[in-house]
Specification:
Strand order of the largest sheet: 13-12-11-10-6-9-8-7-14
Distance between the termini: 43 Å
Helix content: 25-40%
Structural class: alpha/beta
Shape: globular
Number of strands: 14
CATH class of the largest domain: Alpha Beta
CATH superfamily of the largest domain: Dihydrodipicolinate Reductase, domain 2
Number of domains: 2
Oligomer: single chain
CATH architecture of the largest domain: 2-Layer Sandwich
Length: 385
């Protein structure tokens, strides 16, 4: 079986997200972890890369060295994952795209709309994939939820309610913890903290499941911990292009919530509810009927859910498996391109740079709305209006 060489920038020793990416990329035998610049400390990055099995000459000290080393290799990487602080995403992703190397970028894709638009245009010009890791859309039952909405199981969608709330940044004593501090520092995180970090996962999932895009929004931001420049709690109301009503709450100070990503969709003839902490169950209530619990892995689900289901019914499904579906989609798309064939339409579910651009536009729209005391503003990117 042909394997694609894969590399990673960021995600070093102690990283929260690095191990999930490495597990996900290796699930299906489509990628070989071949190169990395894993730490802002060059020596630590090289040492950790070699500990993970990278050849000494491909365990790089920084991303520029990695790009220079990979650019002209016959066996160069086909895909690079960018998992660094937000403010660095644009420069790194653009440089690899301009070298003809496909990119999977952690979210938010950039910190400005102009940067995001430029990545969209650069990817198109170079004929490369620029994907964004809204990895929770890889869960089997999220994809089944999308299929149910698309085939009309709940009728026209009236209302979507999304949450992503946790309490892991609620302790004021963690103010100087580097893993927390950077998220609320505008120089590293951009104009938004919690909404840009977690809220846009919920916002993208609302669009993914409904097959609709956000058009206008109204936001209220709060910094509940004294001294934080950026928000740690946000409430966002939105309307989609088809007129669906949207409600979104995101927080990092909700003590007792662990990883509260949930999505509820209510239509004319039914409702659906799914939670990331219980990913094996999708709750479906048909109008006038009884509540049904759809189990991941059971028979007669949609092809999208069957393809994304990794373990037998009743066993736990986890975040790395969801991320793995994003990597499988990317790997199969890249292999199809290399072999001159059309990929299966089912693999086109991975989030793209266009999705990343929509998110960045929504972030800036929400910041603007919050500053204007919740005024309704256009959330669409300028190039998509």
């Amino acid at each position: 079986m042909t394997r694609l060489n894969w590399g990673m920038v960021g995600g070093g020793d102690g990283s929260q997200i690095g191990p999930a990416h490495r597990l996900a990329a290796g699930l299906d035998g489509l990628f070989t972890f071949a190169a990395g610049a894993l730490d802002h400390n060059p020596a630590a990055g090289r040492a950790f890369g070699q500990k993970l099995g990278l050849a000494a000459d491909r365990a790089y000290g920084d991303w520029r060295e990695m790009l220079a080393g990979e650019r002209d290799r016959a066996d160069r990487i086909a895909l690079v994952t960018v998992a660094t602080p937000n403010a660095t995403h644009y420069e790194i992703a653009k440089a690899f795209l301009e070298a003809g190397i496909n990119v999977l970028c952690e979210k938010p894709m950039t910190v400005t709309e102009a940067e995001a638009e430029d990545l969209v245009l650069t990817a198109r010009r170079m004929g490369c994939i620029c994907a964004v890791n809204y990895g929770y859309t890889g869960y089997a039952l999220v994809r089944h939820m999308r299929a149910m909405v698309a085939r009309g199981d709940i009728g026209r969608v009236r209302l979507v309610v999304a949450e992503f709330a946790h309490g892991h940044h609620a302790n004021a004593a963690d103010a100087d913890n580097p893993r927390v501090r950077w998220r609320y520092d505008p120089a590293q995180a951009g104009v938004s903290a919690q909404f840009a970090d977690c809220g846009i996962h919920a916002l993208h999932m609302a669009s993914f499941v409904t097959g609709d895009e956000v058009q206008d929004l109204s936001a209220d931001f709060a910094s509940c911990l004294q001294g934080r420049v950026l928000e740690d709690d946000a409430m966002v109301n939105f309307r989609t292009q088809r007129g669906t009503v949207g409600r979104l709450w995101t927080s990092s100070v909700a003590i007792g919530r662990q990883h509260g990503l949930t999505i509820q969709v209510f239509g004319e003839t039914g409702g659906l509810r799914w939670a990331q902490e219980q990913p094996n169950q999708l709750y479906y209530m048909p109008l006038g009927g009884r509540l049904q619990v759809i189990e991941r892995g059971e028979g007669n689900l949609s092809p999208e859910a069957d393809r994304a289901s990794r373990v037998t019914v009743g066993h736990a499904e986890g975040m790395p498996l969801a991320f793995g579906n994003i990597y499988r989609d990317l790997g199969e798309t890249l292999l199809a391109r290399a072999q001159g064939r059309t990929p299966d339409p089912a693999v086109r579910l991975f989030p793209t740079a266009e999705d990343g651009l929509r998110s960045i536009a929504a972030i800036h729209a929400a910041v603007r709305s919050a500053r204007e005391k919740g005024a309704w503003v256009d959330a669409r990117p300028a190039m998509m209006r």
